[in-house]
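Take one protein record:
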Amino acid sequence: MRVENLSEIIGTLYDCVLEPQRWNDTLPLISAAGESTASSIVVQDRGGGGCVFEHGADQSFLRLYFEKLATSQVATARPLAFDRVGDVATMTMIAGERETQNSDFYVKWVKPLGFRDVIGVFVLKSGRRVGWFSLARSDVQSRYDDRDLRALGLLFPHVCRALLISDALELQTIASARLEETVDGLSTGIFLTEGEHGRITYMNSSAEQLLAGGALASRNGRLTAASAGARVALARALTASASGTAPAQSGRHAVALASPEGGGLVANVLPLSWRDGRNPLAALRGGTAVIVQDPAVPAALPLGAFAELYGLTATETRVLDHLARGRTPQEAADVLGVGLTTVKTHLQKLFAKTGTGRQTELVQLLARSTPPLRAD
């Protein structure tokens, strides 16, 4: 293990306490210091859920192993010393005294990832959650030896302490950071507001773009609409959400937001606490979510995944692409440089494979398969 930058790594560990996204930058430093191919932190809530930070090669099997270990759903050759925070287990300890390459642990959990050796550290244990840190070496590297364990032992206590502090802070920053990253990738605009006057506490990238469109505005940090009628309707919806008087059936208000230039947006105003449940968006700060969609913006169609799901050929997929963009079969034939009969033949095959009978049904099926992601 290279320890020249040990103090720098320890410093970045404690930066992760309040800025969990820094784990993405810190794990590569730990991997390099430990001459490892991959590293990860898995924090598992006892009631389900949790968070994962990973660096390097795919670690899906190890992640699943630690998640199962958290709920005692995985058996080991002998009892592990994972009773106390700071306990370390090598692959030999997990596999037992048998030849590790023939052990269930190696064959089921390590070998599929192309790893030769793994170190696991029990880094967090509380009434709410448990956590593990792991390092892995590829099948072309040497195993971890006692010298590696002694050197890494200088680092592991600081990993434990950083996660302990995060746990004391309820790991809200971790949940918020991971959720914010996800929400920011949506094509739908999402505003989070507080109070009856709609003070904006968060907006994703799509929401920021919508503010430039004219139908919505931020005035003195408060969310409002451009037209008088929409402004009144939005204000009423925000007040109802903040005061807990949302509609009993849906829990939300739908608001049309007309634009002075024509067209506009459709918004749904949703309280983040409703029907004795708690909306996960609450982790991002705010009491109300305003979810806004621009009907005029076409979604990024998932043609590749849709074609794979229904076994479409490349030509059938191209025909579907043109039909989904609003073209008639004749227009699609002209663009593709083929005859109308050819397009109709492909269309019949599309109907048969997707279980639809009309062009509108086919396009609607594709539209329902479209995730609300930004097309960057």
User: Anything to note?
Assistant: The two ends are 40 Å apart (CA to CA). The CA atoms of residues 306 and 360 lie 16 Å apart. The chain has three domains: 6-177, 184-293, 303-368. DSSP finds 15 helices and 14 strands in the chain.
